Amino acid sequence: MNGLRKDLGTAAIALVIFTLLLGIAYPLASTGLAQLFFPGAADGSKLEVGGRVVGSELIGQDFGGEPRYFQSRPSATEYSANVTFFNNLGPNSKELSEFFAEQLDTYLAREGRFDEGLTAAEVPVDAVTTSASGVDPHISRANARIQAHRVAALRGLSLAEVNELIEAQTEERFLGLFGEPAVNVLKLNIALDQEARR
After folding, report:
1. Hey, what's the torsion of the CAs at 52, 53, 55, 56, to 10 degrees?
2. Sign of the C-alpha dihedral computed for residues 59, 65, 68 and 70 taken in this order
């Protein structure tokens, strides 16, 4: 009986110590260090325009209702950051094939009116596929350059002006090795608004 009491006492002490250490001290320390060394990232990498938060540079958004803006790549989660996931459909899936066909038709209908001669073979892969998270904030440079025709026409800007904005907002490969050059859609749309006001 004394052994059981001793074991329970030891277990209770361990529970209190580890709760204080791992449940309170560690989260406070890691949060504090993140706020100290990486305050922007720790707060969600929010982007502000005129003192108003317009989104996060890490999470894609839906600009579908605004044809004057560049559009993000398709999302399996409708750009919901709290339920990110990949569609998990295999390459032989009929549902996936239909999804790609639908996205391709939508893209060609939206962009083809402004980029004459645009064919399905010229549409970049990221224009019709979702990312692994479903909320990737980037599109390829090729995708942005196709969309530039529409944006320039609807904004009354020259194609050269819009392409300059694309180049200015293009993020190169990480460390020059990893990934592909990509354009952050929200940052590009913010720059576009600023250019249009001039």
Report:
1. 140
2. positive
Same-domain pairing of 163 and 84: yes
Both 98 and 27 in a single domain?
no
Find the helix packing angle between 159-169 and 185-197, rounded to 10°.
140
Q: In the predicted model, what is the mean pLDDT of residues 17-39?
A: 88
Total structural domains in the chain? 2
| pLDDT classification of 198: cutoffs 50, 70, 90 | low
Q: Report the DSSP beta bridge partners of residue 103.
A: none
Backbone angles phi, psi at 173, to 5 degrees: -55, 140
β partners of residue 184? 138
62 and 130 inside one domain: yes
Q: Render pLDDT for 112-122 as a digit per residue (tens, 0 to 9).
A: 999 888 999 99
Buried-exposed string 40-64: b where 16+ CB fall within 10 A, e elsewhere: eeeeeeebeeeeeeebbbbbbbebe
Query: Which candidate, 5, 122, 144, places its Cα nearest to that of 73?
Result: 144
